[in-house]
């Protein structure tokens, strides 16, 4: 895992994530300058092979045990679906927050990361430094978040943004992802309980399913005083459709040449059909679209 990550989404600032190791960047620079033979941007490995093996074992035990407990918790609360849907969704939001805490602590222990955020004037005042050298976000409760997809860990940092947001939104994030992921043992089941949206990448097949799921996310509810409201929701989608691989870059370049478009250097051309469909379906219940760009040191 490359250590520094950058997420565009706020005024220019450079602050480490809350509770995550600071100063990694300085160590990296020293390691690179003192030993030109070290090619990895993170510098020399911080542990020997024995310790690395123990950390791999520790990570596997920690992550799988937490996922198992969360999955069991979900099954315990599943019967609520047949008695009170609001209770059911609130319960699943609680288990979603538990998973967000799991991956945040996982990153802190096994992959300390310095996160640098920057953005333009459209999000001024929504990313604020905290007294402890961390960061706090002030993003709305209902947004669509689109992002590039460089490597498989992008979603971890974007989910962490929901954790660092005030009010916390890590229990109300919904991710659109490829259908094959729901067959991952235990984790796939958990994602289905979370209400994540799985697509086959064939719009003729996906459109009815996508419309059904988005309709649930825009349902108007009424509180005991008779006031209408919408549930909090952060919808995360990756318009590129896949991570930044050599095969994906070739397809993007071919499509750009075929349609006389400029081929981006660090990202791929997005798939616009699904993104447009989502925005059109949610237009009456979402005011903001946040365009996030995630970049890692050493990855072109």
TrEMBL record:
Residues 143-276 form the Phospholipid/glycerol acyltransferase domain. Pfam families: Acyltransferase. Residues 24-44 are annotated as: Disordered. One of its GO terms (molecular function) is acyltransferase activity. The chain crosses the membrane at residues 61-83, 183-200. GO terms for biological process: phosphatidylinositol acyl-chain remodeling. CDD domains: LPLAT_LCLAT1-like. Residues 26-36 have a biased composition (Polar residues). InterPro entries: Plipid/glycerol_acylTrfase. It comes from the Eukaryota. Keywords: Membrane, Transmembrane, Transmembrane helix. One of its GO terms (cellular component) is endoplasmic reticulum. SMART domains: PlsC (SM00563). This is Phospholipid/glycerol acyltransferase domain-containing protein. It comes from Claviceps pusilla. The lineage of its organism: Eukaryota, Fungi, Dikarya, Ascomycota, Pezizomycotina.
């Amino acid at each position: 895992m490359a250590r520094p990550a950058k997420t565009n989404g706020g005024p220019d600032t450079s602050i480490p994530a809350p509770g995550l190791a600071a100063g990694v960047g300085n160590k990296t620079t020293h390691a690179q300058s003192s030993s030109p033979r070290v090619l990895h941007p993170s510098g020399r490995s911080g542990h020997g092979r024995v310790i690395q093996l123990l950390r791999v074992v520790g990570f596997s035990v920690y992550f799988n045990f937490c996922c198992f407990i969360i999955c069991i918790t979900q099954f315990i609360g599943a019967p609520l679906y047949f008695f009170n849907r609001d209770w059911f969704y609130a319960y699943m939001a609680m288990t979603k927050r538990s998973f967000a805490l799991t991956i945040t602590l996982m990153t802190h222990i096994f992959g300390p990361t310095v996160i640098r955020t920057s953005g333009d004037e459209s999000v001024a005042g929504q990313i604020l430094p905290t007294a402890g050298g961390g960061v706090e976000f002030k993003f709305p409760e209902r947004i669509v978040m689109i992002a590039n997809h460089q490597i498989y860990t992008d979603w971890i940092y974007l989910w962490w943004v929901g954790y660092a947001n005030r009010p916390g939104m890590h229990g109300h994030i919904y991710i659109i992802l490829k259908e094959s992921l729901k067959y991952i043992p235990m984790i796939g089941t958990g994602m289905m309980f979370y209400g994540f949206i799985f697509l086959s990448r064939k719009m003729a097949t996906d459109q009815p399913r996508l419309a059904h799921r988005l309709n649930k996310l825009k349902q108007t509810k009424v509180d005991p005083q008779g006031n209408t409201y919408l549930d909090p929701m952060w919808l995360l989608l990756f318009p590129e459709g896949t991570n930044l691989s050599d095969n994906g870059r070739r397809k993007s370049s071919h499509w750009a040449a075929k349609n006389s478009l400029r081929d981006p250097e660090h990202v791929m051309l997005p798939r616009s059909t699904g993104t447009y469909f989502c925005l059109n379906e949610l237009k009456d219940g979402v005011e903001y679209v946040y365009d996030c760009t995630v970049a890692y040191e050493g990855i072109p």
